[in-house]
Design a protein that fits this description.
With 139 residues, the protein is α/β, with parallel strands linked by helices. It folds into two domains: 34 residues; 72 residues, Nucleotidyltransferase, domain 5 (2-Layer Sandwich). Strands 3-2-1-4-5 form a five-stranded mixed sheet, covered by helices on one side. Strand 4, helix 4 and strand 5 form a beta-alpha-beta unit. Helix 3 packs across helix 4.
Length: 139
């Protein structure tokens, strides 16, 4: 019987108090939460150029640039008519052959997808046009 008591007393003495260790862990947790910086990146900021109200007309020896309009639901318009994205390259190539000094201007609605602009820019590059500009249509 005395052996059982000794064993029970030894087990009671072997208990480790974890309270100070938990206090240190919680203090370290609070320290890291307070000192951590949380970065909230929502998107890419784009600097839009200011467009002057009164633009000078193009010189007589140069025709107007090739204008491609993109609506909010990604419809593409050239020369006032709706065109398919697959035919954009051939139309740009024809218009560029008529005026080799022209550049392609993509006037895209704010709600249009970037993929539509990329498809138009790729079509213009495949038609050997190197000057491609994106103009936001805020109206």
């Amino acid at each position: 019987m005395s052996r059982r008591r000794r064993r029970g007393e030894a087990e009671d003495k072997a208990d480790i108090d974890l309270t100070p260790m938990l206090d240190v862990v919680f203090i370290m947790l609070i320290f890291f939460i307070v000192t951590a910086s949380f970065v909230n990146e929502l998107g890419i900021n784009v600097n839009k150029p200011d467009v002057p109200e009164n633009q000078p007309p193009p010189p007589d020896n140069q025709k107007a640039d090739i204008l491609v309009q993109v609506s909010g639901n990604n419809d593409i318009y050239m020369d006032g008519r709706r065109v398919d994205v697959r035919s954009v390259r051939s139309i740009i190539a024809r218009m560029y052959a008529e005026n080799p000094k022209a550049s392609v201007i993509v006037k895209a609605d704010i709600n249009s997808d970037a993929g539509t602009y990329v498809a138009i820019a790729d079509a213009a590059r495949s038609a050997n046009v190197s000057q491609i500009s994106l103009v936001p249509d805020e109206s």
